[in-house]
Amino acid sequence: MKRSILLSTAAIAAAFAAPAFAEDATQLDEVIVTATRIPAIVGDTPGARVIDGKTIEQRGAIFAADILADVPGLSVTRTGAFGGVTQVRMRGATPGKTLVLVDGAPVNDAAEPNGAYDFSSFELADIERIEVLSGPQSSLWGSDAIGGVISFTTREIDGVRAEAEAGSFSTVRGRVSAGVANDTYAFSAYASRFDTDGISAADKANGNPEADGFRSTTLGAKGRYALSDAVKVDGAVRWNRSKADIDGFPAPTYAALADTNDTQNSEQWSGFGRVTAKAFGLNHQFSVSASDLDRTSYSGGFGSTFSGERQAYRWQADGKAQGVDYAFGVERNEASAHLSSGRSRDLSITSVFGVAHYDVGALNLTGGLRYDDTDDFGSKTTGRVSAAYDLAGGFILSGAYGTGFKAPTVSQAVCDYCYAPLPWPELKPETADSVEVALGWASADGRFDGRATLYRLNVEDQITYSAGRYINVAKTRSDGFELEGRALLGGGFDLTLAYAWTDAKDRTTGARLLRVPEHAGSATLGWTGDRVSGALTVRAEGDQDDSGGFSTLVRKGFVTANLNAAYQLTDQVTLTARIENLADEHYQQVFGYGEPGRSGYVGIRLRY
Protein backbone atom coordinates (compact mmCIF):
# COMPACT_ATOMS: atom_id res chain seq x y z
CA MET A 1 0.00 0.00 0.00
CA LYS A 2 2.82 2.40 0.88
CA ARG A 3 4.40 1.93 -2.55
CA SER A 4 1.13 2.60 -4.37
CA ILE A 5 0.50 5.77 -2.36
CA LEU A 6 3.98 7.13 -3.09
CA LEU A 7 3.73 6.44 -6.81
CA SER A 8 0.30 8.04 -7.02
CA THR A 9 1.48 11.08 -5.05
CA ALA A 10 4.49 11.49 -7.34
CA ALA A 11 2.25 11.29 -10.39
CA ILE A 12 -0.07 14.03 -9.12
CA ALA A 13 2.61 16.30 -7.70
CA ALA A 14 4.79 16.14 -10.82
CA ALA A 15 2.19 18.15 -12.72
CA PHE A 16 3.24 21.22 -10.70
CA ALA A 17 7.02 21.21 -11.32
CA ALA A 18 9.65 21.44 -14.17
CA PRO A 19 10.92 19.37 -17.11
CA ALA A 20 14.70 19.59 -16.78
CA PHE A 21 17.28 19.10 -14.06
CA ALA A 22 18.48 22.69 -14.31
CA GLU A 23 20.74 24.98 -12.31
CA ASP A 24 18.27 27.81 -11.85
CA ALA A 25 14.50 27.41 -12.15
CA THR A 26 14.23 31.07 -13.23
CA GLN A 27 16.18 30.20 -16.40
CA LEU A 28 14.67 26.84 -17.31
CA ASP A 29 13.49 28.13 -20.67
CA GLU A 30 17.15 28.74 -21.61
CA VAL A 31 18.41 25.22 -20.91
CA ILE A 32 19.94 24.03 -24.18
CA VAL A 33 20.43 20.53 -25.54
CA THR A 34 23.27 20.14 -28.07
CA ALA A 35 22.99 16.44 -29.00
CA THR A 36 20.26 17.52 -31.44
CA ARG A 37 23.02 18.64 -33.89
CA ILE A 38 21.45 22.12 -33.89
CA PRO A 39 21.28 23.53 -30.32
CA ALA A 40 17.66 23.48 -29.13
CA ILE A 41 15.71 24.65 -26.10
CA VAL A 42 14.81 21.70 -23.91
CA GLY A 43 11.25 22.89 -23.28
CA ASP A 44 10.60 22.95 -27.06
CA THR A 45 12.13 19.52 -27.69
CA PRO A 46 9.98 16.46 -26.89
CA GLY A 47 11.89 13.79 -24.99
CA ALA A 48 14.90 16.00 -24.22
CA ARG A 49 16.40 16.34 -20.72
CA VAL A 50 19.61 17.91 -19.43
CA ILE A 51 21.34 17.02 -16.15
CA ASP A 52 24.00 19.59 -15.30
CA GLY A 53 27.07 19.31 -13.08
CA LYS A 54 25.44 21.18 -10.21
CA THR A 55 22.60 18.66 -10.08
CA ILE A 56 25.02 15.72 -10.15
CA GLU A 57 26.90 17.23 -7.20
CA GLN A 58 23.74 18.08 -5.25
CA ARG A 59 22.46 14.49 -5.58
CA GLY A 60 25.80 12.99 -4.53
CA ALA A 61 25.71 10.73 -7.59
CA ILE A 62 28.90 8.68 -7.97
CA PHE A 63 28.05 6.54 -10.99
CA ALA A 64 25.88 7.34 -14.01
CA ALA A 65 23.28 4.77 -12.97
CA ASP A 66 22.75 6.67 -9.70
CA ILE A 67 21.09 9.58 -11.50
CA LEU A 68 19.85 8.13 -14.81
CA ALA A 69 17.29 6.12 -12.82
CA ASP A 70 15.56 9.42 -11.98
CA VAL A 71 14.87 10.28 -15.64
CA PRO A 72 11.29 9.31 -16.55
CA GLY A 73 11.09 6.53 -19.11
CA LEU A 74 14.54 5.13 -18.29
CA SER A 75 14.73 1.72 -16.61
CA VAL A 76 18.13 1.06 -15.01
CA THR A 77 19.01 -2.51 -14.00
CA ARG A 78 22.19 -3.91 -12.48
CA THR A 79 23.18 -7.48 -11.67
CA GLY A 80 24.98 -6.75 -8.42
CA ALA A 81 25.28 -3.53 -6.45
CA PHE A 82 28.97 -2.88 -7.12
CA GLY A 83 30.33 -3.68 -10.56
CA GLY A 84 27.40 -5.79 -11.74
CA VAL A 85 26.39 -5.37 -15.39
CA THR A 86 24.34 -2.16 -15.52
CA GLN A 87 22.12 -1.41 -18.50
CA VAL A 88 19.55 1.19 -19.47
CA ARG A 89 16.27 0.62 -21.28
CA MET A 90 14.65 3.71 -22.78
CA ARG A 91 10.88 3.65 -23.14
CA GLY A 92 10.86 -0.15 -23.00
CA ALA A 93 13.37 -0.69 -25.80
CA THR A 94 16.07 -3.29 -25.16
CA PRO A 95 19.43 -1.95 -23.86
CA GLY A 96 21.18 -2.32 -27.22
CA LYS A 97 18.80 0.29 -28.63
CA THR A 98 20.22 3.08 -26.46
CA LEU A 99 23.15 4.87 -28.11
CA VAL A 100 25.72 6.13 -25.59
CA LEU A 101 28.10 8.97 -26.49
CA VAL A 102 31.06 10.35 -24.53
CA ASP A 103 32.17 13.69 -25.97
CA GLY A 104 30.48 12.64 -29.20
CA ALA A 105 32.26 9.26 -29.41
CA PRO A 106 29.92 6.22 -29.61
CA VAL A 107 30.98 3.77 -26.87
CA ASN A 108 28.42 0.95 -27.14
CA ASP A 109 30.05 -2.46 -26.70
CA ALA A 110 30.48 -3.96 -30.17
CA ALA A 111 31.20 -7.37 -28.61
CA GLU A 112 28.01 -7.50 -26.48
CA PRO A 113 25.32 -9.69 -28.11
CA ASN A 114 22.88 -6.79 -28.46
CA GLY A 115 25.46 -3.99 -28.64
CA ALA A 116 24.47 -2.60 -25.22
CA TYR A 117 26.67 -0.37 -23.08
CA ASP A 118 27.55 -1.43 -19.53
CA PHE A 119 27.35 1.56 -17.15
CA SER A 120 28.72 -0.36 -14.13
CA SER A 121 32.06 1.50 -13.97
CA PHE A 122 30.99 4.82 -15.49
CA GLU A 123 31.94 7.35 -12.80
CA LEU A 124 30.61 10.90 -12.94
CA ALA A 125 33.59 12.66 -11.35
CA ASP A 126 34.71 14.09 -14.70
CA ILE A 127 31.24 14.67 -16.20
CA GLU A 128 29.96 18.22 -16.62
CA ARG A 129 26.70 17.49 -18.43
CA ILE A 130 24.38 14.63 -19.36
CA GLU A 131 21.87 14.97 -22.20
CA VAL A 132 19.07 12.44 -22.68
CA LEU A 133 17.07 12.28 -25.92
CA SER A 134 14.23 9.76 -25.63
CA GLY A 135 12.59 8.25 -28.70
CA PRO A 136 14.09 7.27 -32.09
CA GLN A 137 17.06 9.51 -32.94
CA SER A 138 18.42 7.60 -35.93
CA SER A 139 17.93 10.64 -38.16
CA LEU A 140 20.59 12.34 -36.00
CA TRP A 141 22.87 9.48 -34.98
CA GLY A 142 22.11 6.44 -37.15
CA SER A 143 22.00 2.88 -35.83
CA ASP A 144 21.55 1.95 -32.14
CA ALA A 145 19.36 5.00 -31.34
CA ILE A 146 15.88 3.41 -31.58
CA GLY A 147 15.18 3.95 -27.86
CA GLY A 148 17.15 7.18 -27.69
CA VAL A 149 20.54 8.72 -26.98
CA ILE A 150 22.44 9.40 -23.75
CA SER A 151 25.28 11.88 -24.29
CA PHE A 152 27.98 12.66 -21.70
CA THR A 153 30.23 15.73 -21.86
CA THR A 154 33.43 15.76 -19.82
CA ARG A 155 34.43 18.73 -17.67
CA GLU A 156 36.97 21.45 -18.47
CA ILE A 157 38.96 22.35 -15.34
CA ASP A 158 40.46 25.72 -14.41
CA GLY A 159 42.42 25.32 -11.17
CA VAL A 160 42.90 22.34 -8.86
CA ARG A 161 40.19 20.06 -7.50
CA ALA A 162 40.39 17.11 -5.17
CA GLU A 163 37.94 15.00 -3.21
CA ALA A 164 38.03 11.94 -1.00
CA GLU A 165 35.33 9.81 0.61
CA ALA A 166 35.14 6.72 2.80
CA GLY A 167 32.34 4.71 4.33
CA SER A 168 30.41 1.46 4.53
CA PHE A 169 31.72 -1.83 3.11
CA SER A 170 35.31 -0.48 3.42
CA THR A 171 34.58 1.85 0.53
CA VAL A 172 37.23 4.42 -0.40
CA ARG A 173 36.91 6.91 -3.24
CA GLY A 174 39.29 9.64 -4.39
CA ARG A 175 39.76 12.05 -7.25
CA VAL A 176 42.25 14.75 -8.23
CA SER A 177 42.18 17.06 -11.25
CA ALA A 178 44.03 20.13 -12.43
CA GLY A 179 43.87 22.43 -15.41
CA VAL A 180 44.10 25.86 -16.89
CA ALA A 181 41.49 27.53 -19.11
CA ASN A 182 41.14 30.87 -20.87
CA ASP A 183 39.65 32.17 -24.11
CA THR A 184 42.61 30.99 -26.21
CA TYR A 185 43.43 27.58 -24.78
CA ALA A 186 42.58 25.05 -22.09
CA PHE A 187 44.07 21.82 -20.82
CA SER A 188 43.09 19.64 -17.88
CA ALA A 189 43.71 16.12 -16.60
CA TYR A 190 42.20 14.01 -13.86
CA ALA A 191 42.45 10.67 -12.07
CA SER A 192 39.85 8.93 -9.91
CA ARG A 193 39.70 5.67 -7.96
CA PHE A 194 36.81 3.72 -6.42
CA ASP A 195 37.47 0.71 -4.17
CA THR A 196 34.99 -1.29 -2.07
CA ASP A 197 34.68 -4.71 -0.44
CA GLY A 198 31.01 -4.56 -1.45
CA ILE A 199 28.24 -6.99 -0.61
CA SER A 200 27.22 -10.31 -2.07
CA ALA A 201 26.05 -9.88 -5.66
CA ALA A 202 23.62 -12.73 -5.01
CA ASP A 203 21.00 -11.60 -2.51
CA LYS A 204 22.31 -12.11 1.02
CA ALA A 205 18.76 -12.78 2.22
CA ASN A 206 18.83 -15.98 0.17
CA GLY A 207 21.82 -17.33 2.11
CA ASN A 208 24.74 -15.73 0.25
CA PRO A 209 27.07 -14.06 2.78
CA GLU A 210 30.21 -13.67 0.66
CA ALA A 211 31.13 -10.02 -0.12
CA ASP A 212 31.90 -9.20 -3.76
CA GLY A 213 34.37 -6.36 -4.18
CA PHE A 214 34.75 -3.80 -6.93
CA ARG A 215 37.70 -1.67 -8.00
CA SER A 216 37.64 1.01 -10.69
CA THR A 217 40.25 3.50 -11.94
CA THR A 218 39.48 6.31 -14.38
CA LEU A 219 41.99 8.67 -16.06
CA GLY A 220 41.32 11.42 -18.54
CA ALA A 221 42.51 14.58 -20.25
CA LYS A 222 40.85 17.32 -22.26
CA GLY A 223 42.16 20.29 -24.23
CA ARG A 224 41.43 23.00 -26.79
CA TYR A 225 43.39 25.68 -28.63
CA ALA A 226 42.29 28.58 -30.84
CA LEU A 227 44.71 28.78 -33.76
CA SER A 228 42.89 31.90 -34.95
CA ASP A 229 39.46 33.48 -34.79
CA ALA A 230 38.39 31.09 -37.55
CA VAL A 231 40.17 27.84 -36.67
CA LYS A 232 40.08 25.91 -33.38
CA VAL A 233 41.14 22.43 -32.32
CA ASP A 234 40.00 20.39 -29.35
CA GLY A 235 40.02 16.83 -28.09
CA ALA A 236 39.61 14.55 -25.10
CA VAL A 237 40.49 11.03 -23.98
CA ARG A 238 38.99 8.91 -21.18
CA TRP A 239 40.30 5.55 -19.88
CA ASN A 240 38.86 3.15 -17.31
CA ARG A 241 39.92 -0.18 -15.85
CA SER A 242 37.73 -2.13 -13.44
CA LYS A 243 37.56 -5.49 -11.69
CA ALA A 244 34.33 -6.81 -10.21
CA ASP A 245 33.66 -9.92 -8.16
CA ILE A 246 30.42 -11.37 -9.47
CA ASP A 247 28.30 -14.37 -8.56
CA GLY A 248 26.96 -17.06 -10.84
CA PHE A 249 24.91 -20.22 -11.15
CA PRO A 250 26.98 -23.04 -9.62
CA ALA A 251 26.90 -26.78 -10.34
CA PRO A 252 25.30 -29.20 -10.18
CA THR A 253 21.92 -27.61 -10.92
CA TYR A 254 23.05 -24.28 -12.47
CA ALA A 255 19.53 -23.13 -11.56
CA ALA A 256 19.97 -20.63 -8.71
CA LEU A 257 22.16 -17.58 -8.35
CA ALA A 258 24.60 -18.09 -5.46
CA ASP A 259 28.03 -17.11 -4.12
CA THR A 260 30.81 -18.13 -6.53
CA ASN A 261 34.34 -16.95 -7.31
CA ASP A 262 33.36 -15.49 -10.68
CA THR A 263 34.99 -12.21 -11.68
CA GLN A 264 34.87 -9.78 -14.58
CA ASN A 265 37.70 -7.49 -15.67
CA SER A 266 37.24 -4.71 -18.19
CA GLU A 267 39.37 -2.01 -19.76
CA GLN A 268 37.97 0.68 -22.01
CA TRP A 269 38.94 3.98 -23.47
CA SER A 270 37.29 6.58 -25.68
CA GLY A 271 38.35 9.86 -27.19
CA PHE A 272 37.97 12.35 -29.97
CA GLY A 273 39.90 14.97 -31.92
CA ARG A 274 38.18 17.82 -33.75
CA VAL A 275 38.99 20.79 -35.95
CA THR A 276 36.42 23.60 -36.17
CA ALA A 277 36.76 26.16 -38.96
CA LYS A 278 34.73 28.96 -40.50
CA ALA A 279 34.71 29.00 -44.30
CA PHE A 280 32.31 29.79 -47.16
CA GLY A 281 29.75 31.21 -44.74
CA LEU A 282 29.52 27.95 -42.77
CA ASN A 283 30.91 26.54 -39.54
CA HIS A 284 32.70 23.27 -40.32
CA GLN A 285 33.59 20.47 -37.91
CA PHE A 286 35.98 17.68 -38.86
CA SER A 287 36.20 15.05 -36.15
CA VAL A 288 37.56 11.58 -35.50
CA SER A 289 36.36 9.62 -32.47
CA ALA A 290 37.14 6.13 -31.25
CA SER A 291 36.41 3.73 -28.43
CA ASP A 292 37.82 0.36 -27.44
CA LEU A 293 36.65 -2.16 -24.83
CA ASP A 294 38.17 -5.43 -23.62
CA ARG A 295 36.44 -7.57 -21.02
CA THR A 296 37.27 -10.96 -19.55
CA SER A 297 34.98 -13.05 -17.38
CA TYR A 298 36.22 -15.92 -15.21
CA SER A 299 33.80 -18.62 -14.09
CA GLY A 300 34.62 -22.05 -12.72
CA GLY A 301 38.28 -21.64 -13.63
CA PHE A 302 37.53 -20.82 -17.27
CA GLY A 303 37.98 -17.41 -18.90
CA SER A 304 35.98 -15.79 -21.68
CA THR A 305 37.47 -12.78 -23.46
CA PHE A 306 35.65 -10.27 -25.64
CA SER A 307 36.94 -7.15 -27.36
CA GLY A 308 35.19 -4.52 -29.42
CA GLU A 309 36.13 -1.24 -31.00
CA ARG A 310 34.45 1.60 -32.84
CA GLN A 311 35.60 4.54 -34.95
CA ALA A 312 33.57 7.43 -36.29
CA TYR A 313 34.75 9.90 -38.94
CA ARG A 314 32.52 12.93 -39.31
CA TRP A 315 32.27 16.17 -41.25
CA GLN A 316 29.46 18.51 -40.32
CA ALA A 317 28.66 22.01 -41.54
CA ASP A 318 26.08 24.34 -40.06
CA GLY A 319 24.79 27.78 -40.88
CA LYS A 320 21.77 30.04 -41.10
CA ALA A 321 19.89 31.43 -44.09
CA GLN A 322 16.50 33.14 -44.42
CA GLY A 323 15.78 32.49 -40.74
CA VAL A 324 16.50 28.75 -41.06
CA ASP A 325 19.17 27.15 -38.87
CA TYR A 326 20.55 24.06 -40.57
CA ALA A 327 23.27 21.44 -40.37
CA PHE A 328 24.34 18.68 -42.73
CA GLY A 329 27.21 16.27 -43.02
CA VAL A 330 28.75 12.91 -43.84
CA GLU A 331 29.79 10.13 -41.44
CA ARG A 332 31.60 6.84 -41.56
CA ASN A 333 31.07 4.50 -38.58
CA GLU A 334 33.16 1.36 -38.26
CA ALA A 335 32.75 -1.36 -35.63
CA SER A 336 34.56 -4.64 -35.08
CA ALA A 337 34.52 -7.32 -32.42
CA HIS A 338 36.43 -10.46 -31.45
CA LEU A 339 34.30 -12.91 -29.50
CA SER A 340 35.22 -15.58 -26.98
CA SER A 341 34.16 -18.30 -29.43
CA GLY A 342 36.90 -17.17 -31.80
CA ARG A 343 34.52 -15.53 -34.26
CA SER A 344 35.07 -11.94 -35.40
CA ARG A 345 33.55 -9.49 -37.86
CA ASP A 346 33.87 -5.93 -39.10
CA LEU A 347 30.67 -3.95 -39.67
CA SER A 348 30.56 -0.43 -41.13
CA ILE A 349 28.01 2.21 -42.14
CA THR A 350 28.40 5.28 -44.39
CA SER A 351 25.84 8.04 -43.84
CA VAL A 352 24.69 11.44 -44.98
CA PHE A 353 22.38 13.57 -42.86
CA GLY A 354 20.69 16.94 -42.63
CA VAL A 355 18.61 18.78 -40.04
CA ALA A 356 16.92 22.19 -40.10
CA HIS A 357 15.05 24.44 -37.66
CA TYR A 358 12.68 27.30 -38.46
CA ASP A 359 10.67 29.67 -36.25
CA VAL A 360 7.36 31.01 -37.53
CA GLY A 361 6.07 33.36 -34.86
CA ALA A 362 4.83 31.22 -31.98
CA LEU A 363 5.54 28.01 -33.93
CA ASN A 364 8.94 26.39 -34.36
CA LEU A 365 9.57 23.46 -36.67
CA THR A 366 12.46 21.00 -36.82
CA GLY A 367 13.06 18.27 -39.36
CA GLY A 368 15.84 15.79 -40.00
CA LEU A 369 16.63 13.16 -42.60
CA ARG A 370 19.42 10.59 -42.76
CA TYR A 371 20.50 7.94 -45.24
CA ASP A 372 22.59 5.06 -43.86
CA ASP A 373 24.28 2.58 -46.20
CA THR A 374 25.52 -0.48 -44.32
CA ASP A 375 28.28 -2.60 -45.84
CA ASP A 376 26.43 -5.83 -45.09
CA PHE A 377 22.71 -5.24 -44.47
CA GLY A 378 21.46 -2.83 -47.11
CA SER A 379 20.49 0.80 -46.64
CA LYS A 380 17.94 2.66 -44.54
CA THR A 381 16.47 6.15 -44.63
CA THR A 382 15.18 7.56 -41.35
CA GLY A 383 13.60 10.87 -40.44
CA ARG A 384 12.19 12.91 -37.62
CA VAL A 385 9.90 15.95 -37.54
CA SER A 386 8.96 17.91 -34.45
CA ALA A 387 7.07 21.09 -33.69
CA ALA A 388 6.44 23.29 -30.68
CA TYR A 389 3.72 25.93 -30.39
CA ASP A 390 3.53 28.66 -27.76
CA LEU A 391 -0.09 28.64 -26.59
CA ALA A 392 0.42 31.71 -24.38
CA GLY A 393 -0.20 31.69 -20.65
CA GLY A 394 3.03 29.77 -20.19
CA PHE A 395 1.83 26.68 -22.08
CA ILE A 396 3.84 25.00 -24.86
CA LEU A 397 2.38 22.20 -26.97
CA SER A 398 4.97 20.06 -28.75
CA GLY A 399 5.06 16.82 -30.66
CA ALA A 400 7.33 14.63 -32.74
CA TYR A 401 7.26 11.71 -35.13
CA GLY A 402 10.42 9.75 -35.88
CA THR A 403 11.72 6.54 -37.35
CA GLY A 404 14.76 4.51 -36.43
CA PHE A 405 16.76 1.43 -37.30
CA LYS A 406 19.41 -0.82 -35.79
CA ALA A 407 21.77 -2.96 -37.84
CA PRO A 408 22.57 -6.48 -36.58
CA THR A 409 25.45 -6.69 -34.11
CA VAL A 410 28.62 -8.70 -34.64
CA SER A 411 27.32 -11.55 -32.44
CA GLN A 412 24.10 -11.66 -34.43
CA ALA A 413 25.83 -11.33 -37.80
CA VAL A 414 28.19 -14.29 -37.19
CA CYS A 415 25.48 -16.22 -35.30
CA ASP A 416 27.73 -16.69 -32.29
CA TYR A 417 27.05 -19.94 -30.38
CA CYS A 418 24.37 -20.96 -32.87
CA TYR A 419 23.71 -24.70 -33.01
CA ALA A 420 20.70 -24.87 -35.35
CA PRO A 421 21.37 -26.59 -38.71
CA LEU A 422 22.33 -24.44 -41.67
CA PRO A 423 21.21 -22.38 -43.46
CA TRP A 424 20.65 -19.72 -40.81
CA PRO A 425 18.14 -16.97 -41.61
CA GLU A 426 19.49 -13.89 -43.35
CA LEU A 427 19.11 -11.02 -40.90
CA LYS A 428 17.88 -7.55 -41.71
CA PRO A 429 18.00 -4.38 -39.60
CA GLU A 430 15.43 -3.78 -36.88
CA THR A 431 13.18 -0.77 -37.53
CA ALA A 432 11.05 1.48 -35.38
CA ASP A 433 8.63 4.38 -35.47
CA SER A 434 7.40 6.59 -32.66
CA VAL A 435 4.96 9.40 -32.08
CA GLU A 436 4.79 11.61 -29.00
CA VAL A 437 2.99 14.72 -27.84
CA ALA A 438 3.89 16.88 -24.85
CA LEU A 439 2.28 19.75 -22.97
CA GLY A 440 4.53 21.98 -20.92
CA TRP A 441 3.77 24.90 -18.63
CA ALA A 442 5.89 27.56 -16.94
CA SER A 443 4.70 30.13 -14.44
CA ALA A 444 5.32 33.79 -15.24
CA ASP A 445 7.75 34.17 -12.32
CA GLY A 446 9.74 31.10 -13.33
CA ARG A 447 9.21 29.31 -10.01
CA PHE A 448 7.13 26.44 -11.42
CA ASP A 449 7.52 24.48 -14.61
CA GLY A 450 6.15 21.14 -15.77
CA ARG A 451 5.73 18.85 -18.72
CA ALA A 452 3.58 15.80 -19.51
CA THR A 453 4.41 13.50 -22.43
CA LEU A 454 2.37 10.78 -24.10
CA TYR A 455 4.10 8.44 -26.58
CA ARG A 456 3.98 5.21 -28.54
CA LEU A 457 7.08 3.32 -29.74
CA ASN A 458 6.79 0.42 -32.21
CA VAL A 459 9.69 -1.89 -33.07
CA GLU A 460 9.51 -4.25 -36.05
CA ASP A 461 11.75 -7.17 -37.03
CA GLN A 462 13.37 -7.25 -33.60
CA ILE A 463 16.22 -9.76 -33.58
CA THR A 464 16.00 -12.50 -30.98
CA TYR A 465 17.88 -15.74 -30.24
CA SER A 466 15.50 -18.64 -30.70
CA ALA A 467 15.98 -22.39 -31.23
CA GLY A 468 19.74 -22.07 -31.61
CA ARG A 469 19.96 -19.14 -34.03
CA TYR A 470 19.16 -15.44 -34.42
CA ILE A 471 16.00 -14.48 -36.29
CA ASN A 472 13.95 -11.39 -37.12
CA VAL A 473 10.65 -12.22 -35.47
CA ALA A 474 9.67 -10.11 -32.50
CA LYS A 475 7.42 -7.07 -32.66
CA THR A 476 7.23 -4.84 -29.60
CA ARG A 477 5.19 -1.83 -28.58
CA SER A 478 5.63 0.61 -25.73
CA ASP A 479 2.85 2.99 -24.76
CA GLY A 480 3.86 5.45 -22.10
CA PHE A 481 3.06 8.55 -20.10
CA GLU A 482 5.74 10.71 -18.48
CA LEU A 483 5.35 13.52 -15.96
CA GLU A 484 8.29 15.58 -14.75
CA GLY A 485 9.12 18.86 -13.17
CA ARG A 486 10.69 21.18 -10.67
CA ALA A 487 9.55 23.99 -8.39
CA LEU A 488 11.23 26.68 -6.30
CA LEU A 489 9.53 26.53 -2.92
CA GLY A 490 11.22 29.45 -1.20
CA GLY A 491 13.59 29.45 1.76
CA GLY A 492 16.26 27.77 -0.36
CA PHE A 493 14.13 24.68 -1.03
CA ASP A 494 13.46 23.21 -4.47
CA LEU A 495 11.46 20.15 -5.45
CA THR A 496 12.02 17.89 -8.47
CA LEU A 497 9.63 15.06 -9.36
CA ALA A 498 9.32 12.51 -12.11
CA TYR A 499 6.89 9.70 -12.91
CA ALA A 500 6.60 7.24 -15.79
CA TRP A 501 3.94 4.73 -16.75
CA THR A 502 5.33 2.27 -19.30
CA ASP A 503 3.20 -0.42 -20.93
CA ALA A 504 5.85 -2.37 -22.86
CA LYS A 505 4.76 -5.60 -24.55
CA ASP A 506 5.93 -8.20 -27.01
CA ARG A 507 3.28 -7.94 -29.73
CA THR A 508 4.18 -11.43 -30.96
CA THR A 509 3.38 -13.19 -27.67
CA GLY A 510 1.42 -10.55 -25.73
CA ALA A 511 3.83 -10.83 -22.77
CA ARG A 512 5.23 -7.83 -20.93
CA LEU A 513 8.83 -6.96 -21.81
CA LEU A 514 11.33 -7.98 -19.15
CA ARG A 515 12.92 -5.55 -16.68
CA VAL A 516 10.61 -2.66 -17.52
CA PRO A 517 8.47 -1.68 -14.50
CA GLU A 518 5.00 -0.43 -15.36
CA HIS A 519 5.26 2.33 -12.75
CA ALA A 520 8.36 4.23 -11.64
CA GLY A 521 8.85 7.59 -9.97
CA SER A 522 11.20 9.75 -7.95
CA ALA A 523 11.03 12.89 -5.83
CA THR A 524 13.98 15.04 -4.75
CA LEU A 525 13.73 17.76 -2.13
CA GLY A 526 16.79 19.97 -2.28
CA TRP A 527 17.94 22.80 -0.05
CA THR A 528 20.66 25.39 -0.55
CA GLY A 529 21.78 27.77 2.19
CA ASP A 530 24.77 30.04 2.72
CA ARG A 531 27.03 27.15 3.71
CA VAL A 532 24.84 24.05 3.97
CA SER A 533 23.17 22.27 1.07
CA GLY A 534 21.56 18.90 0.64
CA ALA A 535 19.05 16.70 -1.15
CA LEU A 536 16.68 13.92 -0.15
CA THR A 537 15.72 11.62 -3.03
CA VAL A 538 12.96 9.03 -2.78
CA ARG A 539 12.69 6.53 -5.63
CA ALA A 540 10.01 3.91 -6.24
CA GLU A 541 9.42 1.18 -8.79
CA GLY A 542 6.49 -1.16 -9.20
CA ASP A 543 6.66 -4.89 -9.88
CA GLN A 544 8.39 -5.98 -13.07
CA ASP A 545 8.70 -9.22 -15.02
CA ASP A 546 12.19 -10.68 -14.95
CA SER A 547 14.04 -13.63 -16.40
CA GLY A 548 14.33 -16.88 -14.47
CA GLY A 549 16.04 -19.30 -16.85
CA PHE A 550 13.22 -20.88 -18.86
CA SER A 551 10.49 -19.09 -16.93
CA THR A 552 9.36 -15.56 -16.17
CA LEU A 553 9.55 -14.39 -12.57
CA VAL A 554 8.32 -11.24 -10.86
CA ARG A 555 10.71 -8.88 -9.17
CA LYS A 556 8.79 -7.08 -6.43
CA GLY A 557 8.47 -3.32 -6.38
CA PHE A 558 10.31 -1.16 -3.86
CA VAL A 559 10.69 2.28 -2.32
CA THR A 560 14.12 3.53 -1.28
CA ALA A 561 15.61 6.88 -0.23
CA ASN A 562 19.03 8.54 -0.30
CA LEU A 563 20.19 11.60 1.63
CA ASN A 564 23.11 13.81 0.58
CA ALA A 565 24.51 16.87 2.38
CA ALA A 566 27.44 19.28 2.13
CA TYR A 567 28.87 21.89 4.53
CA GLN A 568 31.15 24.60 3.11
CA LEU A 569 33.87 25.31 5.67
CA THR A 570 35.59 27.88 3.46
CA ASP A 571 35.45 28.95 -0.17
CA GLN A 572 37.90 26.13 -0.91
CA VAL A 573 36.93 23.35 1.54
CA THR A 574 33.61 21.48 1.75
CA LEU A 575 32.68 18.52 3.95
CA THR A 576 30.25 15.97 2.49
CA ALA A 577 28.08 13.17 3.83
CA ARG A 578 25.54 10.84 2.29
CA ILE A 579 23.31 8.00 3.43
CA GLU A 580 21.98 5.49 0.92
CA ASN A 581 18.90 3.33 1.46
CA LEU A 582 17.90 5.54 4.37
CA ALA A 583 15.09 3.24 5.58
CA ASP A 584 17.22 0.07 5.24
CA GLU A 585 14.81 -1.38 2.67
CA HIS A 586 15.44 -4.91 1.38
CA TYR A 587 14.97 -4.75 -2.38
CA GLN A 588 16.28 -5.96 -5.73
CA GLN A 589 16.75 -4.13 -9.03
CA VAL A 590 17.13 -7.45 -10.86
CA PHE A 591 15.56 -10.66 -9.58
CA GLY A 592 17.97 -12.61 -7.34
CA TYR A 593 20.61 -9.88 -7.03
CA GLY A 594 21.09 -8.07 -3.71
CA GLU A 595 21.25 -4.35 -3.03
CA PRO A 596 22.96 -2.71 -0.03
CA GLY A 597 21.09 -1.98 3.16
CA ARG A 598 21.53 1.34 4.92
CA SER A 599 25.04 2.65 4.29
CA GLY A 600 26.87 5.89 5.04
CA TYR A 601 29.82 7.83 3.62
CA VAL A 602 31.71 11.00 4.61
CA GLY A 603 34.15 13.00 2.55
CA ILE A 604 35.94 16.24 1.79
CA ARG A 605 36.01 18.38 -1.36
CA LEU A 606 38.75 20.89 -2.22
CA ARG A 607 38.57 23.65 -4.84
CA TYR A 608 41.50 25.95 -5.67
Q: What do you see in this structure?
A:
It is globular, with a radius of gyration of 23 Å. It has 5 helices and 33 strands. The strands form 5 sheets. It has a 22-stranded antiparallel β-barrel. Strands 3-8-9-6-7 form a 5-stranded mixed β-sheet. The N terminus is likely disordered. A hairpin with a 2-residue loop joins strand 17 and strand 18. Helices cover 5% and strands 58% of the residues. The protein has 608 residues and is mainly β. The longest helix is centred in the N-terminal third of the chain and has 12 residues.
Number of helices: 5
Q: Report the β-strand fraction as a percent range.
A: over 45%
Shape field = globular
Helix content: under 10%
Tally the beta strands: 33
Structural category is: mainly beta
How many angstroms separate the termini? Answer: 49 Å
Mean pLDDT: 91
Low-confidence stretches: 1-29
Rg over C-alpha atoms, rounded to the nearest angstrom: 23 Å
Largest sheet: 22 strands, antiparallel, barrel
Describe the structure in brief.
The chain has five helices and 33 strands. The protein is mainly beta and 608 residues long.
Give me some keywords for this one.
mainly beta; 5-stranded mixed β-sheet; 5% helix; 58% strand; globular; disordered N terminus
Strand and helix map with partners:
Layout: H1 2-13, E1 32-33, E2 40-41, E3 48-52, H2 53-59, H3 64-68, E4 74-78, E5 86-90, E6 98-102, E7 105-106, E8 127-134, H4 138-141, E9 148-154, E10 159-167, E11 171-181, E12 185-196, E13 214-226, E14 231-245, E15 263-279, E16 282-299, E17 302-321, E18 324-338, E19 344-360, E20 363-374, E21 379-392, E22 395-406, H5 410-413, E23 430-442, E24 448-466, E25 469-490, E26 493-506, E27 519-528, E28 532-541, E29 544-548, E30 551-555, E31 558-568, E32 573-580, E33 599-607
Parallel strand pairs: 6-9
Antiparallel strand pairs: 1-2, 3-8, 4-5, 6-7, 8-9, 10-11, 10-33, 11-12, 12-13, 13-14, 14-15, 15-16, 16-17, 17-18, 18-19, 19-20, 20-21, 21-22, 22-23, 23-24, 24-25, 25-26, 26-27, 27-28, 28-31, 29-30, 31-32, 32-33
